[in-house]
Amino acid sequence: MKTVIQIVLVIAIIALGYFCVESINRPIRFIKNQKMRSEAVIKRLKDIRTAEIAYKSTKEKFTGNFDSLIHFVKNDSLKLVKKEGSLSDSLIEAGWTEEKALELGMIKRDTMLVSVLDSLFGKQYPIDSLRYVPFTDGEEFILEAGVVETGSGVKVQVFEAKVHNNVYLNGLEQQEIDNMSDKTLKLERYPGLKVGSLTETNNNAGNWE
User: Fold this and answer.
1) CA–CA distance, 126 with 20 (Å, rounded to integer)
2) Considering only CA atoms, which of 73, 78, 74 is closest in space to residue 113?
3) What pLDDT sits at residue 165?
4) Angle at 158 between CA 153 and CA 159, to 5 degrees
5) Residues in the chain with pLDDT values less than 50
6) Which of 31, 48, 23 is nearest to 140 (CA)?
7) Separation between Cα atoms, residue 125 and residue 142, nearest integer Å
8) Which pLDDT belongs to residue 19?
9) b/e per residue, 6-17, with b = 16+ CB within 10 A?
10) The model's pTM
């Protein structure tokens, strides 16, 4: 009987030690994995922002549709101005303009069309994956576009791309995810990662910036 009690105590001590160590390691492990995933998601959100800004530069508005955005990047072009020569400070002070210098052949400005994909991301960039959230099984970012009217009555084109903590952190410790989301909600902020905004003109900033 004594031996049985000793064995039970040893098992209890080992179990207690394991749970003590795990209680310390669990949040550390979560922070490490959360950082790795958030870095990948932020990079993808930045790429979405880059594509959206290019889209607006030619379409004069943002898009809330990934099919349209990806098709644009894959098939459309951007205007690139190749510059040769520039006006010196003395010529500018003398009242010279770039138009006058162009007419006289002192400087050159050639406009060419370049592929959006090549110029922004490179030929090898997997643009068809732009819509998908890293570390998920095909989950997509929520993408929306709209118009915000400022206090002075100016209408501004806006877009927003976002993903909830529960989506890109799926598979990690749920209690840690809930704790992180609760802290964010108490600050009246979105419990996830997002770029842009549908409710304010924030210059297309990300909520991690």
Assistant:
1) 44
2) 78
3) 96
4) 160
5) 18-19, 21-22
6) 48
7) 21
8) 46
9) eeeeeeeeeeee
10) 0.78
Continuous segment of H or E residues that includes residue 81: strand 77-84
In whole angstroms, what is the distance from residue 8 CA to residue 116 CA?
Answer: 68
pLDDT, tens digit, for every residue of 153-170? 889 999 999 999 999 999
User: Among 160, 161, 173, 174, which Cα is nearest to 132's?
Assistant: 161
At residue 63, the pLDDT reads 97
Provide the token pair at 27: 């949040």
Model confidence over 110-129: pLDDT tens digits? 666 778 899 899 989 999 99
DSSP state of 153: S
- CA distances 3 to 6, 7, 8, 14, 95, Å, are 5, 6, 9, 17, 101
Question: What are the contacts of 200-209 at 24+ separation with CB within 8 A?
Answer: 200/148, 200/158, 201/148, 201/150, 201/156, 201/158, 204/49, 204/52, 204/53, 204/159, 206/42, 206/45, 206/46, 206/49, 208/38, 208/42
User: What are 93's two structure tokens?
Assistant: 């002070």
